[in-house]
Design the sequence.
């Protein structure tokens, strides 16, 4: 019997003092919460299909952010109340930027 490597994404500690910018005007109200979390540090799951993209939850909210290597900012790509399905299922239905 062969052991197979785990496909479970590993958690990454994100902590940055970069400014946080919403991509969509509808996510402006989430800006303070995301910025505070990133300045303090938050456990996030990297998107294995899109380098520089991460998802994390704070309270009842789920966030998907992009931290590009060449720009000194963090972009809130998506925000929503914690989904009824897993966030991985939600990501599978999103289009890439």
Sequence:
């Amino acid at each position: 019997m062969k052991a197979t490597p785990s496909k479970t994404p590993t958690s990454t500690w994100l902590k940055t003092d970069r400014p946080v910018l919403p991509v969509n005007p509808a996510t402006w109200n989430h800006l303070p919460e995301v910025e505070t979390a990133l300045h303090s540090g938050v456990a996030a799951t990297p998107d294995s299909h899109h380098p520089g993209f991460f998802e994390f939850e704070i309270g009842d909210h789920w966030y998907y952010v992009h931290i590009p290597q060449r720009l000194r900012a963090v972009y809130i790509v998506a925000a929503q109340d914690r989904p009824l399905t897993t966030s991985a299922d939600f990501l599978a239905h999103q289009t890439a930027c």
In short: Residues 12-92 form a domain with the YaeB-like fold fold (CATH 3.30.2310.20). The chain is about 15% helix and 30% strand. The radius of gyration is 14 Å.
